[in-house]
Amino acid sequence: MLVLLVLLFRLAQSDNTVTFLTGLGKITGLSSTVNINNVSYNYHVFKRVPFAKPPIGDLRFKEPVPHGMWSGTLNATTFGPSCMQPPINDPTVIPDVSEDCLFLNIYTPESSITSVKKSVMIWIHGGGYNFGQGMGYPGEYMSVLGDVIIVTINYRLGVFGFFSTTDDVAPGNYGLWDQKLAIKWVHDNIDSFGGDQKSITIFGESAGGWSVGLQILNPTNKGLFQRAIAQSGIGNSLVALSPVARSTAVRIANALNCSDSLSDITMECLRNRTATELSKASFKAANQQLALYEFSFIIAYAPVIDGRFLTDHPVKMMNSLNGSSIDFFRSLDVIIGACEGEGSLLMGNLFSKHYNISAGIPSSYLCDHILPSFPVQFYNNNTRIVSAVCKKYKTTESIEQQSMQAINFYGDAFFYSPAIQSLNVHSRGNHITKTFQYMIQRLINDQSNMVPWFKEAGHGYEVIYLFPWKPLASTEAKELSKILILYWTNFAKTGYVL
After folding, report:
1. 94 with 129: CB under 8 angstroms?
2. Most buried one in 30, 125, 189, 260, CB count within 10 A?
3. In this structure, is residue 320 part of a structural domain?
4. 314 near 235, Cβ under 8 Å?
């Protein structure tokens, strides 16, 4: 039986390439080796695998359409482009962007084609719903060390993935639908790569964590995956959804001389603009929208309640404690957690305002400049919230302690509070699934502090230990990487971390 399986799926292998037969056609990927702690591991990688038709022309601002079969043998030896996203300071980081970007990458241990199917982990990248790409996360490390199949995916970002008129004209959430279709593609096809479609885990960090948190509240995903890991973000976070989608859409229409009625005429006009024109206009519109607040917490292009993917606000879903969304959530094994210094994101916001963050964040700045925008954006401008939060996070201790209190406010409000609520809801009721929480507390000696008074593990700190895109310098760093990968992949295989 083992020989037959190998002949069925692995048609050929050279020194550098390997060809599999799938239900969609033949596919040629790379056979390679990775050295980890002076031990060599062999693996296969299949890059630029299309799961949807290019979302261009009439398919712009619409749910993705399955790609279907390909003709001939698919060349999966080079990465595809990243999805369209705003320019960043270093163009070499994301040198190739395109609307035609709905691809995924599959990393398998060399031994994946056996009679024993391997568990599968699908990574949803972060980047505030506006930046990032699947290829930026080398999946071979987790694959070979954990003996699992790793899949990294692209999904539409920014205006292309989350433009919304908040009605039926352009409902939005296209990036979430892309993720969902990629998950379904993996479920339907991973068997050809030696994967077990009954043992699939989705995991992601930051906006990837928010995305995981929203996917696990969509009951139409039932059967597509069995476990989920939400890192530094969960769907019921206040910042997981955009409260300014429609007003931002008006600004984009005006910037491109399209009707601001946000009608079908508007959409036809926007679909006729080039991707570059739309990207530039959307970047300008978002900046204008966020400039309305002295201090902005929100993301202009993000998921919305569309009545289909999201039928209600995730916070309300969690508060209800029942319903099909919560039932599906509780049917999954989950890990939900964060780094202790998640509020480090606040420092990035302050840096953009040219604030001297090294000098610290005094209580006067927290209470008079940062907090007043908080209830405006999330609590109908209830000013009592400002005084209550100011009182809780104000301290008469050192400026270093006060600065950390400002960081803690941000982390508590947008990361820890929603994570704890999700964990509590998941662990209630009569069900047999597992609930885990994690926290990463401190820096280790291969990472430097952003500022002298900040000594905690900041937002996204753990990702490099799961996907080492550069060599880990210290023994302690290598050990942390080994432990995290062990916990995550054990969970994917068994539902337990040990």
Report:
1. no
2. 125
3. yes
4. yes
Look at residue 352 and tell me whether its pLDDT is greater than 90.
no
pLDDT in tens, 420-434: 999 999 999 778 999
pLDDT surpasses 50 at 271:
yes
The sign of the dihedral angle between the CA atoms of 439, 441, 444, 448 is positive
Number of structural domains found in the chain:
1
Average confidence score pLDDT of the chain: 92
For residue 274, being part of any structural domain is answered with: no
Q: What is the CATH number of the domain that holds 85?
A: 3.40.50.1820
257: how many CB neighbours lie within 10 A of its CB?
10
Catalytic residues: 206, 342
The answer to whether the pTM exceeds 0.85 is yes
Position 64 in a domain: yes
Residue 252 in any domain: the answer is: no
Is the distance from CB of 146 to CB of 485 less than 8 angstroms?
yes
**Which structural domain, as residue segments, surrounds residue 153?**
2-243+299-343+425-494
How far, CA to CA in Å, does 409 sit from each of 346, 359, 386, 414, 435?
9, 18, 12, 9, 25
Element (H, E) at 183: helix 174-189
